[in-house]
């Protein structure tokens, strides 16, 4: 007979759901019941979950809108059978064989109210520990208390550490995967739904400890949080909701008041900073004060020189780290495209600056803006290294002159084709496209727009203008860059109405190099 009901909910995305669920059934030999709460997943994920529910016979609870994780967990509890344990699991976690038996054994042998496994981050080589039990540290006297936290063995090589890991008591574990005695949840009346974002796991651990319950970490149970899997474009709406700054601050204010805590406690400050970094790292758009950056395309834009671009970015409030990245990318672009010109005669670097400027004006995320300065690096740049092929040495050179994330998108830009048929396919299948591929697409759109915004294409010996404005505009709208889509329609009218003086037209059909 099963001892546990596993309740799976979305952590921050949906694109890992099927992989994680298939792995759960493949690597769990022990009997269990499963309740899967599917709150607002995209259609392609929903269909796969329905298929797997028919195959495995688990209870699939569908909710059409997004729920916070604690709302989803409480909904799952209403559908769970009265087993001794509930195991909460996020939908982006894969398990290793024996994980469930180890958690149940630890709870049985220690009497623990909560047990968590060893959490790894992956896929990674070598495998890296995310947490081996968490620690809480209170400080302050004569007023509001301050709380800080730490992850045991965070970022440690698992292969190096596994021989010294042992079951031990800790202060908290995380909802990536967490076994909880059902009677504890019934005593609490469920999980606190006023915690809109975080820290749900710490709140539950504090509530259990206040009643005398113990929390253990059991390293014989191992799960991997799929931290390094790419997000899909269809993940972004829920991701923004999950880690949105306004909701996070509301939840933390409730948490601090509930536990008589300073709302500026180190744990809260660090988690808010982490959420901001996560939003910057994943999203296609840039935010200002927690909101999407408004479109700022006006007179004098797009920029065509580095100083114009730098002025624009500073006016938009870019931070020091963001400006440093853009400046380094510009330096790399100057090296790669010295003496290179567009077919119309414009210095190639000006075109790169213009592409980055358009991306910034339309509110693109900083990695996209930086990629705009280097998007043609592998197609037309002259590296200070031998050979025409894209080599590991060239990639390392570009990483040093930009960042790992930017170089990855630039490399993907070189590998992805670009024609009308691809644009239309991307529009049809955008939900399943990865965020890096969507960022390449966004930079491609900005490249197309920059060629037309000052009528570059009319000043060449082959004054081409591919008639695919409608699919370009449609794709811009689907990526949530509606103003960029509108810009294509304006460019269509200007390009159709303009004929330059013949004496101003370049004799070149393609970009060219002038040796100095």
Question: Can you put this structure into words, describing what you see?
Answer:
β8 and β9 form a beta hairpin. α1 packs parallel to α2 and α11 packs antiparallel against α12. By secondary structure, the chain is an alpha/beta fold. About 45% of the residues lie in helices and about 15% in strands. The protein is elongated, with a radius of gyration of 26 Å. The strands form four sheets. Strands 1, 2, 3, 4, 5, 6, 7, 10, 11 and 12 form a ten-stranded mixed beta sheet that branches. The protein folds into two domains: about 230 residues, Spore Coat Polysaccharide Biosynthesis Protein SpsA, Chain A; about 220 residues, Orthogonal Bundle (Hypothetical protein af1432). The chain has 21 helices and 16 strands.
Task: Write down the domain tally.
Answer: 2
> How would the global form be characterised?
elongated
Corresponding CATH superfamily of the largest domain = Spore Coat Polysaccharide Biosynthesis Protein SpsA, Chain A
Helix content: 40-55%
Please state roughly what percent of the residues sit in beta strands, choosing from under 5%, 5-15%, 15-25%, 25-35%, 35-45% or over 45%: 15-25%
What's the rounded overall pLDDT mean? 94
Q: Total strand count, please?
A: 16
Please give a quick description of this structure.
The protein has 516 residues and is an alpha/beta fold. The protein folds into two domains: 4-231, Alpha-Beta Complex (Spore Coat Polysaccharide Biosynthesis Protein SpsA, Chain A), CATH 3.90.550.10; 295-513, Hypothetical protein af1432 (Orthogonal Bundle). 45% of the residues lie in helices and 15% in strands.
